[in-house]
Amino acid sequence: MTAHADETQEAAMSKVTTPPSDLDDALWQAWKAIELPEGYHAEIVEGFIEVSPTGRYAHGRIVNRLRDRLVVFLAQGEYAAYQDINVAHRRKVWIPDLFVASADAEEHVTEDGLGIDASAVRLVVEVVSPGSDGITRDRTRKRREYARAGIPVYVLIDDFDDGGTITVLTAPDREAAVYGDELRAPYRLGAALPEGPAKGFVIGAEIVGAGRVG
Question: Parallel, antiparallel, or unpaired: how do β-strands 121-127 and 153-158 relate?
Fold first, then answer.
């Protein structure tokens, strides 16, 4: 192989790996040093540390119903449902309302022990939080972040979209930070997950409720 070919290959590899920047490292160190009062958590989303309260009762009820049913659906398989655990990707960190990863998660814990590496996560779920910041974070900023990380399935349970809509996003494009396929369904009809460990699992009204009125 010629010197020119070697240089070309090295340049291509550097574009693929895209190591964390100095800003990423600074945010990571700051995030690790944060001490929050009970009832709050912090994430690094698109270059910002975002602090938000834990979900209200209605929010937690949906997440717990979903996890209870997923535990049964996934029983005896290679995957499990998780809550309240950090998901990390290249000095970014998120705390999804729920995610599905290998049941043997220990082998996917990050080197510092602070969370699960995003490469092991097959499904993330966010129950959209109220308020413009919460809605934008879940619908837009986290949507891009999860696509960048290559997480195969992103589910949005959204009280504030046409009175209650379940959106299932698949086919992530890491470079463009978008999901190529989108399925939307009202709460009353429900949505079946089209792929992954929970393929065929239906998220419907018995989990999300009847939706908002007005």
Answer: parallel
The model's confidence at residue 11, banded by pLDDT at 50, 70 and 90, is: very low
Residue 155 burial (10 A CB sphere; 0-12, 13-18, 19+): buried
Residue 66 vs residues 72, 168, 170, 209: alpha-carbon distances, Å: 10, 15, 19, 11
Largest CA distance in the chain: 68
Name the residue among 122, 98, 207 with its Cα closest to residue 159: 207
8 A C-beta contact, residue 202 and residue 190: yes
pLDDT tens per residue, range 112-168: 888 999 999 999 999 998 888 889 999 999 999 999 999 999 999 999 999 999 999
Asked whether 142 and 134 are in contact (CB, 8 A), the reply is: no
pLDDT in tens, 46-75: 888 888 887 778 899 999 999 999 999 999
* Residue 168 near residue 190 (C-beta atoms within 8 A): no
Give, as one character, the DSSP assignment of residue 94: E
Query: Would you call 191 helix, strand, or coil by DSSP?
Result: strand
